[in-house]
Write a structure and sequence with these properties.
Length: about 325
């Protein structure tokens, strides 16, 4: 019998929970974000009839070693924060480190982490190792669209939309139209029960993102201001690698410092950084080792008691009133 894994992009979920709570002192914000996090997971557990929860964490990414600008803007933004903001961040990190320790040591959930890997890498490799099971990815990160398959779906807890190979659905399973922006991201339109996406939309979205780059992650475009029609024609020729493909890939352009770039070189760089289906062999091996170590049978006793202690430590009184709905997924073992 196939299983249903709820794959949590934990840093993404924590970030969304943190920024959803803007009022009150830091202790109130931490408590509210914890409530949002646990209730969100409980909702997903019930909605998708989960059998096991997998928390995936970001480590210091290997991508920074091969591309210096990777997520550089986020690091620079962190450096410009005020003393008060840094102190608040530190208290948040302490609370969430405590959460991670609780999940790792006092529950039967799988917690995947490695100093060199991001949650994206771990989720991609988990999906690859579980082709006969259902995998539900909980994240707002559009990068995961490239992993979509008959056994892989994404749930965006902010928009309450479920993204599948066949389309985008709301919580009532109503089908919506969508288009792809130039950077490969989804733009959801109106409800349409007859909407059928293009058969190649997932590959086209990934190809577009590799060419256009990802400003949020500091990944520069492989070909600035390239026309969409030229890009689409090259995509259609990607398997044959004929004239149209090579005409795009062998183009050169000059950056603001006068450096000459060949599109193919920057395309290959971006593909290494963005493509989760074809990760470098050494990254796949590292992620597989992390997964194999973590899924050795955990059988933690008294999870309900440990959960109540965690709630008491962080003043999570509302969660403590209904522990059974959370212990359900905290106690579910990897079988």
């Amino acid at each position: 019998m196939s299983k249903t894994f709820i794959l949590i992009d934990l840093n993404n979920l924590i970030h969304r929970a943190k920024h959803a709570t803007q009022h009150g002192d830091v202790s109130i914000k931490i408590g509210m974000s914890m409530h949002i996090l646990f209730n969100s997971i409980s909702k997903m557990w019930k909605k998708f009839k989960g059998t096991h929860v997998v928390f995936c964490l970001d480590g210091k990414s290997w991508r920074r070693e091969v591309y210096e600008s990777y997520k550089l803007s986020r690091r620079l933004q962190q450096a410009t924060k005020s003393i008060k903001e840094r102190e608040e961040d530190e208290l948040f990190y302490e609370a969430y480190n405590d959460l991670i320790a609780f999940l790792t040591e006092k529950t039967n959930c799988s917690v995947l982490k490695s100093p060199g890997l991001e949650a994206d890498d771990l989720i991609a490799c988990w999906v690859k190792k579980h082709p006969d099971d259902m995998n539900i990815i909980i994240s707002t990160d559009s990068d995961f669209c490239q992993l979509l398959a008959d056994n892989v779906e994404i749930y965006n807890g902010v928009t309450n939309m479920r993204i599948t190979v066949s389309g985008v659905y709301d919580d009532k399973d109503k089908l919506f139209e969508f288009t792809l922006k130039n950077d490969g991201k989804i733009k959801v339109g109106k409800a349409n029960p007859n909407f059928v996406p293009a058969a190649d939309w997932i590959e086209w979205a990934k190809f577009s993102k590799i060419i256009r780059g990802d400003a949020g992650d500091g990944i520069f475009t492989a070909y600035p201001k390239v026309r969409q029609t030229l890009l689409r024609n090259a995509f259609e020729d990607r398997k044959n690698k004929g004239y149209i493909w090579n005409n795009l890939m062998l183009q050169t352009w000059k950056d603001h410092e006068g450096n000459i770039h060949r599109v193919l070189d920057d395309y290959n760089r971006n593909m290494m950084l963005i493509d989760l289906v074809e990760l470098p062999d050494e990254i796949v091996e590292l992620a597989a080792a992390v997964i194999d170590t973590e899924i050795t049978a955990k059988n933690i006793p008294n999870i309900g008691i440990w959960f109540m202690k965690f709630c008491g430590k962080h003043d999570l009184t509302r969660l403590a009133q209904y522990p059974d709905q959370f212990v359900q997924f905290l106690a579910a073992r990897y079988e």
